[in-house]
Design brief:
The chain is α/β, with parallel strands linked by helices and 171 residues long. Helices cover 28% and strands 21% of the residues. Helix 1 packs across helix 2 and helix 3 packs across helix 4.
Amino acid sequence: MKIGPTSSGRRLYIMRHAKSSWKLPDLPDFARPLNGRGRRDAPRMGRLIAEEHGLPELVLCSAARRSVETYCAVAGAWTGWPELRVDPAFYGCGPDVWLDALVAVPETVGTVMLVGHMPAMWELLVDLVGAKHAPDRFPTAALAVVESNAPWPEITSAACRLLSFQMPRDL
C-alpha cells in the first residue's frame, strides 16, 4: 500500500544509515562504507518505502560515505529519483541542524526523507513526536515515518505524530 503525502499535511521519513564496516580501523569515520549487512538491508528498506509509504520528493542526506551509500541502495529499489541534497553539515550534527533544514523546505514539497546518524536521527524523532511516542532505540537502517499537519516552517512536536517505525529485521 502506498500512503504518500497526505492532502492535509507533510510526511517525513527519518532514516539512520545502514550498518557500516569497521574492516579498516585506520579509515576515518566519515569515509567508512557499508558492510555486507548494510548493503542487504538498505534495498529492503527502499522496497518498503516504495510499497508502503510512497517515494519522497526531497532527500536530505549526510555527506558521510555510509549515508550516501545507504541512500543510493535505498533509491536503487525505486522507480524514480527524488531531488537529493547531500550536505557535510549533516555529519556529526545535532537535531537542530536537521530541523533548520526542514523548516527551509519549500511549501510545495509534501514528503521529505532524512538519511543520517545517531544520535541526531533519534533525538530529532523524540523532539518531533515526544519521548513517550518514540522508540527507545534507533538501529541501523531503521525508518521512522512522521506526519505533520503543519507547514515545514512550523513543524514542532505539537504538530507531529509517529505513523510507523520499522527496522530491517522486521521485514
